[in-house]
Amino acid sequence: MTPRARIIGGTVGAMVAIAAPMGVYFEGVFPVGYADPVGIATDCIGETEGARVGVQRHTYAECLARYDARLAGRWEALSTSCIHHDVTVHEAAAIVSWADNIGIYAACTSTLVRMLNAGARAVAWCAQMLRWTKATLLGVKIELPGLVKRRRAEHAMCLGRDWRQA
């Protein structure tokens, strides 16, 4: 059995409490569905599953609660399937924010996770987040300024710095 990653110096709840405000800042809270910058139907806080443009599925409070639960679930998926090295609460918060945005499969097959599991220093694997700044629009990969800002914030958080200063 593969070892499960643990959060050093914190709990899943503490990790969510650190990660959630950054997600709210970058995604916003939208009870009514909208099209994201590349046209994907999205609602609440970056939720794409079941989202429909112009349709309200949840209240503001429900969006916040769903996001917290989603982040906790993302950590569960990551820590049981592909992250096998213990991390600090800030590292976990940054990883879960990043993985929630790019997808669990992309995160688990990334160089970042390979480096983390190999025991690389956080300064090296956290820097891998800075590479994930592109999205596909009409079949073309483009760098999005919002993703550049978000990755800088996640990188700062990963290193235990104030993400708001990034």
Q: Secondary-structure element sequence?
A: EHEEHEHHHHEEH
Number of strands: 6
DSSP helical segment count: 7
Low-confidence stretches: none
Going across the major beta sheet, what is the strand order?
Answer: 1-4
Q: Separation of termini? A: 39 Å
What spatial form do the alpha-carbon principal axes imply? globular
Q: Quickly give the structural class.
A: alpha+beta
Query: Fraction of residues in helices?
Result: 40-55%
Share of β-strand residues: 5-15%
Sheet bearing the most strands, described? 2 strands, parallel
For the record, the count of structural domains works out to 1
In CATH, what is the class? Answer: Mainly Alpha
- How big is the Rg? 15 Å
CATH architecture: Orthogonal Bundle
Can you give the mean pLDDT?
Answer: 95
